[in-house]
Amino acid sequence: MKKVFQTNLYRTTRRFVLSAAALLMAAFPTQADNAPLASPIEGRWDISVDANGKVLPSWLEVRHSGTKTLVGQFTGFSGSARPISVVHFKDGKFDFAIPPQWEHGESDLKVEGTVSGDAITGTLVTPDGKSYSYKGVRAPSLRGKPTPAWGAPIKLTGGNEIKGWHATGENQWVAENGILRSPKSGANLVTDQKFGDFKLHIEFRIPKGSNSGVYLRGRYEVQITDGKGMEPSLDQMGAVYGFITPSEMVAKDAGEWNTFDITLVGRMLTLVANGKTVISNQEIPGITGGALDSNEGEPGPLYIQGDHGPVEYRNIVITPAK
């Protein structure tokens, strides 16, 4: 009799515990139960802005935060990637606003648009009140690419002539004994040839207070600054401008030669600066300000910045994938 009573008590207690657990789970759903369905605007978008007939590249990323809020980041055709605190989305239409960065004007930069499958279209209003139309497509992931077999190295500097490059405006660059030198702010310099995946060796020096950058595929700027003694940051030496902070600051004194050794496969970047790995196989989310275009799935040129002060480059060698 005692054994039967204990068995019945165990069964009753077990049913009670299971029922209580079910009630608790219903009252307090797990994160998986509460996981939001992806909104059509979520993801990364490569954008082309029509600025009075001139195409200017931009980029947008939207993701959910919790169950109800959409947030993101945006790269305009100047400056760096900026956070978006809220993206409003309803019935296929979206809009957001972000404070001005380098633009003229005091108002927010405002973007509105419509999603249609893997395309977006809409209007961008700059802080000075100018309105431009744009169109965008989903950015390619470029993930999961195997390490390629490398081809023959291509030397892009040497001698006293500028070969294999062209200036984006009136040229101020000169070639002297294998050194490409921009004595003052002026045009940027772009390779005639375009590249997909590659390894790059490049050496540079700048005077105190100057600034430059190396654009990979013409879209992703690796920053060059007179940064010795500074903390690593998104806008200083060795950063992918606005996106990736290097692990440490390894800049040499102003006027000394520095080196970058860069490997870019898909979106994955490794950067060795002055012999130290400061970025190790990290993903570049999207284009940086000043990009030549937003066609991320295509090969692109190398370009070196000459519009932010004096700079010199030498021993530029790129090794493309076969």
Would you give an account of this structure?
This protein is mainly beta. The chain folds into two domains: 43-138, Lipocalin (Beta Barrel), CATH 2.40.128.20; 154-320, Jelly Rolls, CATH 2.60.120. The protein has two helices and 22 strands. The chain has helices at residues 2-27, 31-34; strands at residues 43-51, 54-65, 69-75, 82-84, 88-90, 93-98, 109-116, 119-125, 131-138, 154-155, 165-167, 174-176, 179-182, 189-191, 198-205, 211-216, 220-225, 258-265, 268-273, 276-283, 303-304, 311-320. It has a nine-stranded antiparallel beta sheet with strand order 4-3-2-1-9-8-7-6-5, with no helix packed on it. The chain is globular. The chain starts with a helix and ends with a strand.
Largest pleated sheet? 9 strands, antiparallel
Q: Which strand-content bin applies to the residues?
A: 35-45%
Categorize the overall geometry: globular
> What is the fold-level CATH name, i.e. the topology of the largest domain?
Jelly Rolls
Number of domains: 2
Radius of gyration: 26 Å
Question: What descriptors fit this protein?
Answer:
single chain; 322 residues; mainly beta; Lipocalin; Jelly Rolls; 2 domains; nine-stranded antiparallel beta sheet; eight-stranded antiparallel beta sheet; 2 helices; 9% helix; disordered N terminus; AL/BT2_dom; signal
